[in-house]
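[stage:ingest] chain + small molecule ((R)-mevalonate)
[stage:ingest] validated
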Amino acid sequence: MSEIIDGFSKLSKEEKVKIICDKYFKNSNASIKTIKDYWNKNSKIQKLHDEFTENTISNFYMPLSIAPNFLIDGEFLAIPMVIEESSVVAAAASSAKFWSNKGGFKTKIFSTEKVGHVHFEFEGKKKILIDFFNSVKDKLLESTSSITKNMKKRGGGITSADLIDKSFELRNYYQIEVKFETIDSMGANFINSCLEQIAETLKKLASNADLKIDVIMSILSNYVPMCIVESSVSCSIDEIGVEFANKFIKAVEIANSDVSRAVTHNKGIMNGVDAVVIATGNDFRAVAAGVHAYAAKDGKYKSLSKAEIINDTFKFSIRLPLALGTVGGLTNLHPLVKWCHELLGNPNAKKLMSCVASTGLAQNFAAVKSLITTGIQKGHMKMHLLNILNQLDANEKEKNLTVKFFKDKKISYHDVANFIKNLRLK
Ligand code: MEV
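[stage:predict] done
[stage:export] tokens:
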């Protein structure tokens, strides 16, 4: 039998499930049941989810949690977080509460510009290309007018277009770098449509002028160092303790000087960032790619956060490049995403940037605080205990007894399993 599954996308959902479970599972019926157990009983909701992507066979649950008590720019918010890792939400919540009576998180948006490129090759004298670009630039932009019409009405659109010489890096390689303001939408479709139109017009005009321009591709960039939000917390050094503050600053300095530590330090930040980005229906892969590139912007991968003491004030801050949307995409389509936006007061993109950056900072504060005091495992394993108990199929009584027993003890899977085993023997 051929290994190729022909015409898979054309099959019904039932057929897809059956063909996959029969082919790849020892117990086909049990695996079909697992898949179907996660189908939503509400056919309208199920259809909606089926149509988000292709070849859908079921739903994949992630917990939606709330981190309350976030005071951000003077407003108390409950932050929605979608994440599977134990202790992340608890850490964010405890950090939020800690800073809530110290002025909370203060944020600042530096700019919200996004960028994309038409990447092309040109064979010939650079001066000829520059003159040609300058002579056709208006036409290139005019050709996007039907695409930019609505965005312009909302105050956005194309803000600049420049010819960039990259030929010293790669033979004959040039770009048209186009910058965009996309207001409250992330703008990926808008940007890519504009770029593809500019590329088409460029090809046509170049051919009319007998110039050898070869367009390679046209695409937005997920590197958005001009779309920056800063979030910070601060308090007097006495409130937090001199010894703690100095150790905290040292821990951040280590993340600045050592790449291995920087990656883990920033991963802690992304625990918070990604969870809110997913809950609000934004593209977490784009955010992660852009944020990590930004962490390496000085030629070395460094901490995204900064801790310092200025005139007896401890200040902890973060700057993140975040291209987020609060309209378009999943925001109006996914009922839970819509719910999360409403929870945040239907924010515009700038406010969402503030919420995401503050959650990342809160997460980082909690992680570094644990690391330099109790160690990370104490809190983490306490939260993870329930997962261990569920893996061991513990009933409510067993769970209560185990939680009580391990209240003041170190938790490990081995010790919990032994404890449950002994309980069951009794
Ligand atoms: C775990 O998900 C995140 C931490 O490793 C972050 C850090 O080390 O700063 C605790």
